[in-house]
Amino acid sequence: MNTIVSIDASSAERLEVVRSADRLAAIEADWMHLWHRTDGLIFQSHAWISAWWSTVAERDQRALRIGLVWNGDRLVAVVPLTIGKRKGLRFLEWAASSYTDYGDILVAPECSLSALQDVWAQICDAGGFDIAFLNHLLPGAAVRKIFTPDTSGGIRLRPNHREEVSYRVAGQWKSGAAWFAEQSKKTRQNYRRGVKTLEEAGEMKFRLLAPDEPLQPVLDRLSALKRRWLVERKRESQLFEEGAPVLAALVDALARAGVLRIFVLECDGAMVAVSINFVQHHTMMAFVTTFDPDFSQASPGMILMMDYIQWSIDHGLGTVDFLCGAESFKHKFATQGVVLQSVLGARTAQGSIASLADRMRQRVRHVRGRGPVPTS
């Protein structure tokens, strides 16, 4: 059931909280129109969130809480949230949070701040969760308008100690070759040595997949390589489970939005490295990258990355964004890093206890010199 509440008859603004898959499907056209108008990232698109919701495992353990603001019959804001369970607690978090590198809301210029704050209050008042936790916030995220200190309704969200860094390659190179020439002598030598090793094993080819090429064989290969990597490190990811539909659904969302770019490195026709990327805001964004460990001596993942960085520069893109994660290979090539912050607020006694326990753990780590001073 959805809730619609009038705010101000003079402005014709009204609120709605989407809770059902049917209603989510019904607002697709309005949502996508707002997404295009505001030049939103794919993570805030209807295609991305509905792809996740239609394929997410254990959906009966989750609940949609997507706040909307309407101005007349025009959608002017989307607050894409969901409730999920972890460690015995119910979290209000970004919809598709596991696959969303930058969390945010969509807001049209004509949407009032009071409407945004009221839809947040309505979501909070409806309950059903212990803790609200919104992460992966860019410095200029629009959602920051909701949890300003003067917000009167809803849960007060405060800065949380959990931060991540988004590493990027950004500069004014005239060409990809110019960027390559600026790399250290050792990096250039390692690249050439890796290329030579692959060429000795067979014909090496770097290429961008054509729009009409079938995607499933590439996704199957990528998932198999990722599962092997995860097993070796005793880790798991639903994104790459055999037969799981979520990766294909998300990639399809990228393709339908016209932003998908898949780069492959082949040796004798076999894919030895794959990177699923997308282009938005004059930026190449690297979503998922993997390589065949049987060819690890040649470092095919590094070769592929250096090749698509050069490709991006040659095609006029100003930035290559490695998205979330502080893996060493990202830091190696990055020229800048952007800190992604998080905010947290407790709604129930259980949530307050968990939040307090988390702060105490952080204080202990700080005293021991293992972590930052907690801010919440």
TrEMBL record:
Pfam family, one: Acetyltransf_6
Organism (species): Mesorhizobium onobrychidis
Coiled coil: none
InterPro entries for this protein: Acyl_CoA_acyltransferase, BioF2-like_GNAT_dom
Domain of life: Bacteria
Domain BioF2-like acetyltransferase intervals: 185-330
UniProt protein name: GNAT family N-acetyltransferase
